[in-house]
Every structure is written in structure tokens, then in C-alpha cells.
Queue: 2 jobs
Job 1
Amino acid sequence: VEKKVGRNDPCPCGSGKKYKNCHGSTQPSAPAGQAPPR
């Protein structure tokens, strides 16, 4: 069962980042499972 995660909720991957800054953004330039470099 997968629950809906809000964009401002903590990412379920456990990084501690907000979902929108972690896995919430679907950018083809970033490999799956990695946040884009800052």
C-alpha cells in the first residue's frame, strides 16, 4: 500500500529532505534515486 506524499512532506526515502526537493521532482537529467547536485 503506497500512501500519497505531499510535496512539502519529508521524502519517504529517508533522506530527511522535502519530497519536492528529493524524489518529488521528475527530472530526466537526474538518475533515479539521486537528487540533483546543488
Note: The chain has a mean pLDDT of 73.
Job 2
Amino acid sequence: MEQMKEDLGSDLVYDFIGDVLEERFESLADLMQEAIINREKLDDIVANMEKGLSEEHAKLLKLMQEERLTEDTVDLNTMKREHNRLTVSRIPSRAYSDLASYIMEKKKVRMYESNEGNVKRIERLPKFIRESIPSLTNYQGDTFRFTRYKEYENDEIALLNSDHPLFKLTLDLMKRENDKQSWGNYLISVNVPEPMTVEIYHINIVDGTGKELERRFLHVARRENGMMITLDPIGSFQKTLWSN
């Protein structure tokens, strides 16, 4: 009874208890008379009532769940748009492996290939990398095996992601390399609502044959509070910098 009150509410419980009694007995007086005259049947009466209440409890719970599903409207169009947005913005898993391979090659790290180049192996990181990266102080010469294809992934061959130690090492090496660069600074006067430092990145995308697919500039601005925003590259040259 207490569980029914918790699930359905006291008012609803008392209403259908009355319905069950009326269905099984003509009136409450008949029930009392039956219990007094045939006292030996009282346990059976109680058992039948409990069975009936349990059945009604299950029916009402199911009905309430169906009504709740009906009331909870699902905006399929919004869900589909959000799914598409996440799909487009998600970084392909192969990109992690490609970036790691590229940086390791630039650093002259020896890599071995197998399975027609689909699986790569680094037996041991060079000493100059181990000594320059603080996070590698506990490095014990572990071998890294990784791939850019899901079908080659197993317990010994990793499909790299943002949390993999090798990819984190890749980012660390990139950061250290960028810190060595000498960047040119230019001061320009444009109509902006606040002071900011703007970094311009040249992005060049090519296919497997080397054919250029896209070339563009990415304008990233740092506000005084440290927040990073992107700027409209066309607006930058038209002295109207705001993008989003």
C-alpha cells in the first residue's frame, strides 16, 4: 500500500481501492458480513484483495508511463540537427594518428610499419625527447603501437585519441616547437570595441596526391581577459572585425 501511494499518490490509490471492492463485493456491508459470518474465509478475502490491488497497481503504473511518454514531445528535427552538427565538428579518429606520425617523423623518431603501413610502431623514444619532456620522467622504454583504422585496433594496437599518451606527447612537442618560433608583431588601427591581440594562421588543405583543396586564413583574437574568439577574415580588412 505504501509503495502504491509513493508511485501513484494517495488520492488515486484510494479511488481504485474503492473500485476493486465494488467489483468484488456489492457493498462494504456485504464484505463485513462475509467476514463476520464466515470468519474462516477472512484470510482468503484479504489475499484476493491484495492480488486485485497488485494487478491494478501494475496496470496504473503502465498507464502513467504511457501518458508520460505521450506528454514528453520529442523534437526530431532539433535532435537531427544537433547530431549532424556533432558529426561534422567531431575530429576523425585517423587525424590523431596522422598528426602523431607527422610530428614524430619531423623529430626523426624511428617508426616501423606493418600491415601495409596501416599499423605503426615506435620501439623507444629518443633520449633528447625523454629528457626534454617532464611528463616522461617515468618512461620505461614502452613501445607504442598505433593505427588510424578501427579494424586494426586491438589490445596491443591503439586507435589514438586525445587522451592517449602518445598524442599528448605529440601536442607537447608541437607546443615546444611553436614556442621556439619568432613571430612577427604588427600594430594596426581598426574599429574594435576593445584591445586585443590577433594571430593569423595560414591553413592549406591538400589531398593524397598533393592537390590543393582549400587555402584560407584563420584569424584568432585574444581578449585582455584571456578569452579566445575568431574574427571574420573579410571583415578584418574592411575594418569591421566582429564575427561571433
Note: The chain has nine helices and seven strands.
